[in-house]
User: What shape does this take?
Amino acid sequence: MNNTDTNTVTRTKTKRPRMYKVILENDDFTPREFVIRVLKTVFRMTDDEAYNKMMTAHQKGICVISVYTRDVAESKAKEATELGKEAGHPLMFTIEPEK
Ligand code: TYC
Assistant: This one.
């Protein structure tokens, strides 16, 4: 970049898009097995990965599931939250920008 004299900026590198964390929130009602099933279906996790993420949220209150571009994070969080809602569970996924 050269912004000293002319106030023009030339970008030589392509900016990477801001990434968004998908966060799983604990609640007192959604069955553990249901949380695991949603994690496997929407986030393509193995049984072990899904169990570990579910237990982290259960014990600590929240767990970062993964990091995606904004569009993907939004649609996965929405789809996963919707699966809970359709089954009558208050399961909640949110997104948060990185850094
Ligand atoms: N706390 C729930 C229970 O005891 C299980 C659960 C875990 C729910 C993680 C949500 O993000 C969650 N049945």
Remarks:
- Residues 30 and 89 are 5 Å apart (CA to CA).
